[in-house]
Amino acid sequence: MSHTAFGEFFPEIANRETRVVTIIDQAVTGLPLGEYALIDLYCTDPDCDCRNEYINVVHKGFSGPIATITYGWEDLSFYKEWMGGEEDDYILRQFKGPSLAIAVRQSQFADKWLSIFEDILRTDKAYADRLERHYHLVKDFVNNKTYADT
């Protein structure tokens, strides 16, 4: 299953809607100062409806993502059914809600970014809704459906 950044499909929307977090106090956060972009990536398999995405936290001072977070907005029963009745809660929780992606190299700041991302989702429903809308835009695009630049 391949994942592609939302901006590869919809650069104009991504320029307006990519979340950027600016760290201005290292003593409070424990994170290097500067701007961090939360880049959303989506599955490009037209036959897949996983309702899950990756969020790469990137900073220009680092060569790769500082954290890769998975995020699924459906309830556990959706993912259990989608996985064909998989009973393993650990695997199911990799799809439901935010968690650090497994089998991906994470930096020493990954746990902190997971906590920040969880706080953003709790306090900014519009952002959570935006991520779900981005998912549907990408799925429509890869299925050759029409879409509107909204």
Model description:
This protein has 150 residues and is of the alpha+beta class. The chain has one domain (3-142). 41% of the residues lie in helices and 22% in strands. The protein has seven helices and six strands; from the N terminus they run E-H-H-E-H-E-E-E-H-H-E-H-H. It has helices spanning 6-9, 11-17, 26-29, 76-82, 89-95, 110-123, 125-142, and strands at 3-5, 19-23, 34-43, 52-58, 67-72, 99-100. Strands 1, 2, 3, 4, 5 and 6 form a six-stranded antiparallel β-sheet that branches. Strand 3 (34-43) and strand 4 form a beta hairpin. The longest helix is centred in the C-terminal third of the chain and has 18 residues, at 125-142. The protein is globular.
Q: Strand tally, please?
A: 6
The structural domain count equals: 1
Shape: globular
User: How far from one another are the termini?
Assistant: 27 Å
What is the ordering of alpha helices and beta strands?
Answer: EHHEHEEEHHEHH
How many separate helices?
A: 7
Largest sheet, strands/sense/barrel: 6 strands, antiparallel
**Helix/strand/pairing category:** alpha+beta
Low-confidence stretches: none
**Helix percentage range:** 40-55%
Give the overall pLDDT as a whole number. Answer: 90
Question: What fraction of the residues are assigned to beta strands by DSSP?
Answer: 15-25%
Q: What radius of gyration results from the CA coordinates?
A: 16 Å
